[in-house]
Write a structure and sequence with these properties.
By secondary structure, the chain is of the alpha/beta class. The protein has seven helices and seven strands; from the N terminus they run H-H-E-H-H-H-H-E-H-E-E-E-E-E. Strands 1, 2, 3, 4, 5, 6 and 7 form a seven-stranded mixed beta sheet that branches.
Amino acid sequence: MRRHSIRLFIAVLTFTFGISIFWVSQLIRQVKTTFVDHFITVNNSDVSPVTLVRLNSDEDANEIYRLLVHRKFIFNDEIKLIVLQAETTSCPMYENESVKEKFGVTEPFHQMMNEWMPEAEVQTLDNYLLSNKTGQELKVWNLGINYVMVRDGDLPDGRFDNFWERFYKKYPNSPGLVFFSKVGFNDRHDQAFVYVARSCGGLCGAGEYILLNKVNGEWVVRKE
């Protein structure tokens, strides 16, 4: 009888000890998980805002559009209004393969840019081409001058021979119709590449590629 009681006591003790070990191990695991989750959450919240601010393409693009509007299209005191094509526009004669073929352009885009603008990084040009595969809504909000965004339906219709007369009557004190592509950037966001053009009547008009660099927090034109 005594031997049986001792065996029962040992069994109960062993079971109790096992339960205690299991409970303690679960408690340690929960504490460890809570600590790790808290550490990761704090770490991510510290890093995310910095990354978002540093790579704001829309802010950088608006600064570039503003710079180029003042540099290229406000050439006298009579210019009071900038008329912008509402959809972004690139230069298909050098970028679209079917259009290039019609114009007899055989050189690849990167090769042409390497000859004209050897300072342009491949990464910047790749991002420009990727961003301009299709026309998109032009995003601007502060150009430092009055501006209006227009689509085809906003422009004068009818005969071409008096289109510009009617255009300037509808949009007086403007330099014509201004076009911008989307801006291409390198990963560091210290180099940018953009196409800009203006149509102003008859044979009046021009288009060009522009390379910019960010110097001391400000965008400056490097080559055009």
